[in-house]
Every structure is written in structure tokens, then in C-alpha cells.
Amino acid sequence: MLKSITLIGLGGAIGSILRFVLTTKIEGRFQPTSFPYGTLFINITGCFAIGLIYALSTKVNIAPEWRGFLATGICGGYTTFSAFSYQNIKLMEEGHLSQAFIYISVSVLVGLLATFIPILAIQKLS
Q1: pTM of structure
Q2: I need a labelling partner for 29 at 20 to 30 A (CA). Which of 42, 47, 62, 93 fits?
């Protein structure tokens, strides 16, 4: 268990650093703009990476702790959107279309609300 936790933590650090460096470089190229090109790039490439990791892990024997390092650690530090995307693909593959639709809808709508509510509350306090 300690080995898995250590590998996931190390992967998370690597993914977070990659996200910061790439987002900074990409958004620097598109200034001035308010569109989040860097985040869009991170989300799309993170989805591709986690898909590749899980597809390869079904063909190549990757130890669970190393799959955790790559998927949960690096991809999780890089973007959690990749996990969200993969989980929805799995729900759809398993025929749970309504659950996937609910997960997508609730995640996006409630996520936006959960972000907006404290912003609004703090603005009202000011």
C-alpha cells in the first residue's frame, strides 16, 4: 500500500508540474484572449493519455501500482477531467447510458453552481 501511495503522489507531482508548464506556455502564445486554450489542451490530452493507459493495460501486463502511478498519479495531477471522461466511457460501454447522462449533467451543472455560489457569496460580502 505504501508503494502505491508513494507512486501516486510522485505521479501527481509530475502531472501537476506538466499541467502548469504546458498551460503557461500555451496561454502565453494566445495572449491577449480570455479563452482557456491551455486548459482545453490539458483536458483533451489528459483524456487521450488516460485512454491510452487503460487500453494498453488491457494488452500489456502493467502492475496495479504502476497503472496507479500513470492514471491516478500523472493523469490525476495533470487533469481530473480525464478520469471523468474515462468513467463516462465505461458507463456507456456497460450500457448505463442514463447513468452516464446523469453523471455528465450533474457534474457539469452542479460543478458550475458549486464554483459560482462561493464567488457570489464572497462578492456580496465585499
Answers
A1: 0.77
A2: 47
